[in-house]
């Protein structure tokens, strides 16, 4: 068992990592075990997963953590002050109910949530803090603010397009980040994304509608995550870009959020709250 896992510092908040074997789950387990702020008390995977019963640390190539991967979310969350969840929408909803019951902080990175999912999360947040963001990196959350400012400064004659690229395994589009950026651009124009969003283009789409916001998604290889916000005017373009090259940026944001949430009351928060942006 790693020194940081031993019970020498019982005051550290206990954290459950959901989606333990996922790209983000593995990164999170490694960072919790390496860094000092949180204590790993649970690692969740879906029932039937190969890792169930095996040591979470050993599974991710770290020293033994003394924490077996489990599908028993109720027991795991009962011991936790925080749950970090990068899974899938239905799993996130189930976890929100349990996390609310345990009055633990729920940090949600899962994307692809629809209006029904969001309504259920709002209800869960009446009982405990939920910190949710489509992207937990500092860079993207700064870019969100820049996008809002640039959109506010430019008139409707500047067309706004968000282009994103991700690895071949990603299941949702546009990405959660692209939607955050699109929402910020719409806010800059005094509207909501629902008002301005253009449906995905294919076939004879007609000319671009003035003031609309369009999205394009590229999927391939092992791209971690790339986002461009393009402001296209007559004779010139502005491109705001974020390139992620290491998933640790998302994981570090999530760990910071779990700690930040420890003294917060029930409610919905995002990374701008955590980062003080
Ligand atoms: N907000 C952010 O900064 C980021 C968000 N994401 C999002 O996080 C999510 C996960 O991304 P990845 O790790 O790349 O996906 P992944 O597919 O590698 O991992 C998801 C894991 O969740 C597990 N899972 C599914 N249902 C479960 C359940 N009921 N209980 C426990 N575990 C369950 C799966 O078995 C899998 O291991 C996606 O929605 C992705 O878009 C990813 C990176 C950054
Ligand atoms: O699925 C991913 O990988 C990522 N998902 C998030 C998103 O949907 O924007 C964040 C990041 O881009 C990686």
From TrEMBL:
Catalyzed reactions per annotation: (S)-2,3,4,5-tetrahydrodipicolinate + NADP(+) + H2O = (2S,4S)-4-hydroxy-2,3,4,5-tetrahydrodipicolinate + NADPH + H(+); (S)-2,3,4,5-tetrahydrodipicolinate + NAD(+) + H2O = (2S,4S)-4-hydroxy-2,3,4,5-tetrahydrodipicolinate + NADH + H(+)
A cellular component term, taken from the record's GO annotations: cytosol
Subcellular location: Cytoplasm
Binding site for NAD(+): 19-24, 45, 109-111, 133-136
CDD domains: DHDPR_N (cd02274)
Record keyword Phosphoprotein present: no
PROSITE patterns reported for this sequence: DAPB
InterPro entries linked: DapB_C (IPR022663), DapB_N (IPR000846), DapB_N_CS (IPR022664), DHDPR_bac (IPR023940), NAD(P)-bd_dom_sf (IPR036291)
Class in the EC hierarchy, top level: oxidoreductase
Pathway: Amino-acid biosynthesis; L-lysine biosynthesis via DAP pathway; (S)-tetrahydrodipicolinate from L-aspartate: step 4/4
Domain called Dihydrodipicolinate reductase C-terminal: residue spans: 139-275
Binding positions ((S)-2,3,4,5-tetrahydrodipicolinate): 167, 176-177
Residues annotated for NADP(+) binding in this entry: 46
Domain of life: Bacteria
Keywords in alphabetical order: Amino-acid biosynthesis, Cytoplasm, Diaminopimelate biosynthesis, Lysine biosynthesis, NAD, NADP, Oxidoreductase
Similarity comment: family membership: Belongs to the DapB family.
HAMAP family hit by this protein: DapB
Annotated function: Catalyzes the conversion of 4-hydroxy-tetrahydrodipicolinate (HTPA) to tetrahydrodipicolinate.
Subunit structure: Homotetramer.
Identification of the protein by name: 4-hydroxy-tetrahydrodipicolinate reductase
Organism whose genome encodes this protein: Paracoccus tibetensis
């Amino acid at each position: 068992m790693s020194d940081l896992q031993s019970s020498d510092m019982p005051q550290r908040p206990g954290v459950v990592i959901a989606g333990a074997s996922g790209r983000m789950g593995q990164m999170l387990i490694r960072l919790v075990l390496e860094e000092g702020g949180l204590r790993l008390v649970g690692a969740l995977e879906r029932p039937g997963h190969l890792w169930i019963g095996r040591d979470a640390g050993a599974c991710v190539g770290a020293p033994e953590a003394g924490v077996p991967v489990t599908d028993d979310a109720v027991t795991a969350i009962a011991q936790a002050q925080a749950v970090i969840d990068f899974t899938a929408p239905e799993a996130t909803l189930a976890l929100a109910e349990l996390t609310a019951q345990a009055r633990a902080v729920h940090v949600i990175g899962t994307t692809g949530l629809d209006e029904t999912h969001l309504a259920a999360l709002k209800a869960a947040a009446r009982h405990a803090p939920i910190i949710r963001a489509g992207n937990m990196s500092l860079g993207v959350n700064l870019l969100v603010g820049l996008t809002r400012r640039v959109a506010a400064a430019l008139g409707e004659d500047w067309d706004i397009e968000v282009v994103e690229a991700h690895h071949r395994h990603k299941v949702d589009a546009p990405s959660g980040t692209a939607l955050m950026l699109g929402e910020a651009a719409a806010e800059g124009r005094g509207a909501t994304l629902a008002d301005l969003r253009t449906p995905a283009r294919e076939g004879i789409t007609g000319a671009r509608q003035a003031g609309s916001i369009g999205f394009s998604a590229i999927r391939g290889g092992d791209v971690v995550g790339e986002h461009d916000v393009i402001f296209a005017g007559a004779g010139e373009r502005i491109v705001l870009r974020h390139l992620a090259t290491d998933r640790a940026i998302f994981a570090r944001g999530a760990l910071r959020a779990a700690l930040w949430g420890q003294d917060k009351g029930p409610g919905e928060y995002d990374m701008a709250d955590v980062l003080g942006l």
